[in-house]
Amino acid sequence: MMDTATTILNDLGISEQGAIRGFALLSASQKLAELNHECAAFRNKYNLTFREFEKSIKSRSEEIFTEEEDYLAWRFAEEGVAYWREKVERLKLEK
User: Fold this and answer.
1) Which DSSP string do the residues of 41-55 spell out, in sequence order?
2) 75 and 50 in contact (C-beta within 8 Å)?
3) Any idea where the domains of the chain sit in the sequence?
């Protein structure tokens, strides 16, 4: 099975290391796109940036469970965007 894959890579002039890097870049880019999409959905839902929404949540005296839940999900997505963006940029710089 790997012999076929290796042959194809050789025919295409792609090293195994290049194929691994390409796959990693493709996978990381997909994850980044998914998280960006999730962040955009929250921006559209609340018509606020994450920082504005965070400020609103933290300034309240009472909790609204669904918004608190959205806050945590949005924060996780924003942190993920930063993480995966950095990985994608590093992969693009590697040769």
Assistant:
1) HHHHHHTS-HHHHHH
2) yes
3) 29-93
